[in-house]
Amino acid sequence: MSMRQLGWRALYEVLGARVRRPEWAFMNYGYAPLDADEQPLALEPADEPDRMCIQLYDHVTRDVDLRGADVLEVGCGRGGGSSFLARYRAPRTTTGVDLSRAAVALCRRHRHAPGLTFVQGDALDLPFPDESFDVVVNVESSHCYPSVEAFLAEVHRVLRPGGSLLLADLRGRDDMVELLATLRHGPLEVVELHDITANVCAALELDDDRRRALLEAWIPRAVHRPFERFAAVKGSSTHARFRSGENRYTSARLVRGTTALA
After folding, report:
1. Which run of H or E residues covers position 195?
2. Between the CA of residue 118 and those of 127, 253, 258, what are the distances in Å?
3. Does 3.90.1280.10 match the CATH number of domain 3-20+58-197+246-255?
4. Whole-prediction pTM
5. Is the separation of the CB atoms in 100 and 78 below 8 Å?
6. Cα(146)–Cα(189) distance, rounded to whole angstroms?
7. Beta bridge partner(s), residue 133
8. Per-residue pLDDT tens over the stretch 42-100
């Protein structure tokens, strides 16, 4: 395991072990539609506080019918996204996999839905047989990986022919150029790419009060400053980089072809 993976794993192990509140279900930056005429996503009252984060999953998956599908979320974190997909999109099975044992333990305790399971595992060495899934979802996780190329190879392996990778993630401006080139030259066909930086920035600003309240309630005051950057609250350097365009956010849909790689 690389030093990069070890660092991210240590952070998420601490968060999973020390912040055990089931209400903290999502860690993504969210998505806000910019078209005022767009019909709002219908959510159960219990899911309403997480609307911005859920809307990112809705955006990423809306063009693929998950009904009856076997779905894998790589980098499931605290399990909110896998739970949303299992409860709202009617897949046959939903499997969340994460490198953090503490996060997986939290998911197993608190995220329950038909066909929903959680597994500890490495995104670069997925613990599943070849051609196990129809759809792989990867939200705000690939920036933690030492090799996106190795991740794409594993996704290609576990996807069934014709299956989709639905991805969303952030990078600095130059690193985003590199990520897009990696996606285009990988083993999967790029079908859609969307720059959603403005949508993510809008979501952060609409959700700012809630994020700050969660930091106050659940994070020790001594480490508030680094967690403000981590959560991209208004006034943080991370939020400023989104506002200036130094940070970019992309969503993508890629498809595995019907023939095997040579």
Report:
1. strand 189-195
2. 12, 23, 28
3. no
4. 0.90
5. no
6. 22
7. 159
8. 999 999 999 999 999 999 999 999 999 999 999 999 999 999 999 999 999 999 999 99
